[in-house]
Amino acid sequence: MPPRKIIIDTDPGQDDAVAILLALASPEEIDVLGITAVAGNVPLPLTAKNARIICELAGRPDLPVFAGCDTPLSRKLVTAEHVHGKTGLDGPDLPDPTMELQDTHGVDFIIDTLRSHPAGSITLCPLGPLTNIAQAFNKAPDIVEMVQEIVLMGGAYFEVGNITPTAEFNIYVDPEAAEIVFKSGAPVTVMPLDVTHKALVTTERNEAFRSIGTPIGLAVAQMTDFFERFDKEKYGSNGAPLHDPCVTAYLIRPELFSGRYINVEIETVSDLTLGMTVADWWGVSGRPANATFMGDVDAEGFFTLLTERLARI
Ligand code: BDR
Ligand code: CA
Fold it and tell me: Whole domain around residue 271: which residue ranges?
């Protein structure tokens, strides 16, 4: 099978960075056409810069990186420096990028790419708030039916929330955008906290990254070390969840994940539960299914894959 053509839409973020590195290390399965940055973990100028830092770390200064939306569709931006540090990529000491940001807006890149390829041949991989994807769907509704699949990190059901008691960060930041995406009719596959909280970077797994013995192995160990401090304290677990790489791992080894095709609605009104992904896991609502909502991951298989692939670049 030819590699799957994807656009990574992202707000790096250390875990976004690892997700990007995994994709770039897997050219047999994944063909990254471009990276669109969105405001999320940190403001847009930093996510657009961090995306380029990661491309250069991976030896891919040729990969086009686009800046997308700098604020959610209709809300003030909420950021997560408390998790990711001031730069969004705290941990390793990586040089500023020399590659240029593309002139085209990220949203237009998404639209142009979908329109210029055969229908059903492009997968969108959002790793941050869904602002760019929703904006592209609003601006060019014709592209929705051209999307092969949207594989995203966001939401939670049994794990409920990480930024509020009921909401996961990516959905909470731009719930209106999430609603547009989940209601769009495009095939949506979701990696919620229910999955990513099982992908824990334990001390041994962190050591395995470090033992690769390359600049990438070291940078990934340092990045996961950094946000581990915060997450271990918060959850009392023996490692920090590695959220976004679940998206790119799914493209390579879908059999590592299992879930249900169910109805998922986004709460956009209630202050108390804003951004909640109301996932009908038990099929009690009678509402039509609109997303494959993952619930489990083979964590050993996931980390074996990740470590093997990172060692290739
Ligand atoms: C998500 O929020 C961000 O902090 C991470 O990069 C991930 O995409 C987890 O809730
Ligand atoms: Ca992210």
Answer: 4-310
